[in-house]
Amino acid sequence: MPDPIDTIDSACAQVSTPPVDNHFVGVPKSVRQTAPTFNVEIHMAGDMSAAALFIQQVAAKKGLCVTMSPQSYIYSGGREEGFRIGFINYPRFPKVGTEIIKQAEYLADWVADHIGQHSYSIVTPAETIWCSMRPGSLPPFGSELPELCQGVPT
């Protein structure tokens, strides 16, 4: 069984920054980069599998990288299953917070449309934004195709 310290150090060695000496024997030098922390999350009910497949298509065309995890929404009128989509300021390709928020807004609109969801929330470090897209309240999709989703089938 591998030593837990070696396993942790080995995993850390795969992360990026200028080489630093490591006091553990046999562990490669690592590179580390930092960026200001900025997390944004999309919270949406609906079919996580369909959303994940769509996001994977977007990621393949645009270089997007997000996390995704299941989430239950329990409220006074019932319960729905859904998911959370997470964005971070990834130090390898750092962005300013407004860029991350805009990317989340575009993706959330397109995912919601793709899976037939009419509302969602976006949580930023400063505020929570609730978005509602009831039928007829938006221009037809494709009339103003966001750059993030150009070329992705809807």
List keywords for this structure.
154 residues; alpha+beta; Alpha-Beta Plaits; five-stranded antiparallel β-sheet; 3 helices; 29% helix
Report the CATH C-level class of the largest domain: Alpha Beta
Overall mean pLDDT: 81
- Major beta sheet summary: 5 strands, antiparallel
Strand order of the largest sheet: 2-3-1-4-5
Which value, in Å, is the CA radius of gyration? 19 Å
Low-confidence stretches: 1-18
Tally of domains: 2
Strand content: 15-25%
> How many H/I helices?
3
N- to C-terminal distance: 47 Å
Instruction: Based on the coordinates given, report the CATH architecture of the largest domain.
Output: 2-Layer Sandwich
- What is the overall silhouette? elongated
Count of DSSP E strands? Answer: 5
Q: If you consult CATH, what is the topology of the largest domain?
A: Alpha-Beta Plaits
Describe the structure.
- The chain is of the alpha+beta class and 154 residues long.
- The protein has 2 domains: 1-33, no CATH class; 40-149, Alpha-Beta Plaits, CATH 3.30.70.
- The chain has 3 helices and 5 strands; from the N terminus they run H-E-H-E-E-H-E-E.
- The protein has helices at 4-13, 48-62, 97-115; strands spanning 40-45, 67-75, 78-87, 119-123, 128-132.
- It has a 5-stranded antiparallel β-sheet.
- A hairpin with a 4-residue loop joins strand 4 (119-123) and strand 5.
- The model is unreliable at 1-18 (pLDDT under 50).
